[in-house]
Amino acid sequence: NSGVFDDVTLSALNPLTLPVGVTYDAISHTYKIDCHAIGIPYFPINGVLTVDMPLIINNSDIQMGTNAKIVIKTGSPQGSLQIEKSQLHACDAMWDGIYLNNPQLNATLIVNNSVIEDAENAIVANTTSSYYTITGSLLNKNWKGIIIDYWTTNFNGTMKGSQISCDVINLNLQPGSFAGGYPPSVVFSPLYPLNF
What we know:
Layout: E1 5-9, E2 22-25, E3 30-33, H1 35-38, E4 43-51, E5 54-58, E6 61-64, E7 69-72, E8 80-84, E9 87-90, E10 95-100, E11 108-112, E12 115-117, E13 119-125, E14 131-135, E15 138-140, E16 144-148, E17 156-160, E18 163-165, E19 186-188
Parallel strand pairs: 1-4, 3-5, 4-6, 4-7, 5-8, 6-9, 7-10, 8-11, 9-12, 10-13, 11-14, 12-15, 13-16, 14-17, 15-18, 16-19
Antiparallel strand pairs: 2-3
């Protein structure tokens, strides 16, 4: 199999026939993309990647197709996405973004020492019980950096030692060809006051 996800739901994958660059740990029921570990330059994601089981993206250059998106949903086990030392970016045109989707509860996103760029909506949290933490990372060249659209109680999102910007940067990774410059933004539409 070539290394690519085209409209994939993790729970529907056969762990015995995974694309190159993807592994499955049967004990923790966790999928992992690690380009560096197996020596592939990048991993493409097209369409919708539905994360309804744990997924770790580690040391990887993830090239997002036009309008591609990642939707984190709960399941059994719970859907979660952990991005470590990786870059998610567009190839030709902007991709959609990462969604912690309503009405799903307890969807989790963890971003550490990574770059998310070239997205229409880098991170969209539109459910009361979603959780995200962004540490030591950069949200760059996104139309909207973080959208917190709907919640009825305290919201569980944190951003530490990170930036939202619109700089053209060179990370010595395989950069995408898209180089737009957009105003950095965080958009809030609360029913109750925002509480990070």
